[in-house]
Amino acid sequence: MATAAGRPEPPRSLRTVRAAEDLAAARTCYDHLAGALGVSLFDAMVRAGLLGLAGGVALTAAGRSWFTDLADPDVLRTAGSRPLVRNCLDWTERRPHLGGALGAVLYRQLAGRGWVSPRQGSRAVSVNPAGKQALNDLLGIDLVS
Question: Do residues 79 and 114 make contact, with C-beta atoms less than 8 angstroms apart?
């Protein structure tokens, strides 16, 4: 009985199941992207050499250039006291996604271009077909499904 009491109750409705799936697929975590989408972005940025992981997550020279091309040249100076990059453990994927000032910049840029949009009344975000193509072109992320 003690073991059963510690487990969360399974979803009871199709709406609840879909909402949980939407959050696991793509959502915001404070002001940056999380879920499977956020983890895919982080992994792709590491593969592309935009982020380095030796001794902790760090922006590489290639990453510095990529972000200034994506946003604007002043993007790296606007972090203030906030860390420029940091990994943030994703609660659904149990792997890191990109947090920090650049995580927020990335989300704002994708949303500003209309590639991702928040879902009404939820932290879930949707990636439209143009966004799926753009993420494939920019980072080789395949979100075709």
Answer: no
Which of 26, 61, 57, 22 is CA-nearest to residue 41? 26
The 3-class SS string of 52-86 reads ECCCCCEECHHHHHHHHHHCCHHHHHCCCCCCCCE
Tens digit of each residue's pLDDT (9 = 90 or more) over 20-75: 676 767 888 889 899 989 999 999 999 999 999 998 999 999 999 999 888 877 77
pTM, whole model, 2 decimals? 0.84
Query: 64 phi and psi, to 5 degrees?
Result: -60, -45
Instruction: Please write down the long-range contacts of 110-115, taking CB distance under 8 Å and 24 or more positions apart.
Output: 110/33
Asked if residues 50 and 68 have their Cβ atoms less than 8 Å apart, the reply is: no
For residues 59 and 102, the answer to whether their CB atoms sit within 8 Å is: yes
| Tens digit of each residue's pLDDT (9 = 90 or more) over 95-111 | 998 999 999 999 999 99
